[in-house]
Automatic annotation (TrEMBL):
UniProt entry keywords in alphabetical sequence: Repeat, TPR repeat
The protein, known as: Uncharacterized protein
Gene3D superfamilies hit by this protein: Tetratricopeptide repeat domain (1.25.40.10)
A Pfam family matched in the record: TPR_2
């Protein structure tokens, strides 16, 4: 199992989404679904523009692994891409409440708040990114 999840993480890091999708679908036919197979499949489908399929797999992942809050962030990204900012905010906040706190999450949550017109909250998110990584150009740009 460790080898499989390590392989998927490596492929995700290199954005090899077209390679991940068939690998995960094959694995799902051979074995019961596991967290990394479901999540990598959902992320990959999202990044190749197949958002409805991505949503389906990530929702299945969240149902089977509700304590894995990173999936909430992934679902938030789908909603953000579809310009459904209230739903994106709700999923991203669920991820932060569950302890998932990454630079990418705060940047994207800041964008969502910005699009919703919640500028004070957006500013707080971008400042959090800068606190974590002082040279983060995008966060500085979003602050104006």
């Amino acid at each position: 199992m460790w080898f499989w999840s390590h392989k998927l993480k490596k492929l995700l890091a290199t954005h090899a989404y077209d390679a991940i999708i068939p690998m995960c679908l094959d694995r799902l036919q051979q074995r019961p679904p596991d967290y990394w197979t479901l999540r990598a499949l959902g992320i990959s489908l999202m990044n190749v523009g197949r958002t409805s399929e991505s949503f389906e797999w990530l929702t299945k992942c969240l149902r089977q692994y509700p304590h894995k809050v990173a999936v909430q962030y992934d679902l938030g990204l789908i909603y953000m891409k579809q310009e459904c900012y209230s739903q994106a905010r709700d999923h991203m906040l669920a991820a932060t409440e569950g302890g998932y706190r990454t630079e990418a999450l705060f940047v994207n949550l800041g964008r969502v708040y910005y699009y919703l017109g919640e500028f004070e909250k957006a500013t707080h998110c971008f400042r959090e990114v800068i606190r974590r990584r002082p040279g983060h150009a995008e966060a500085y740009n979003m602050l104006g």
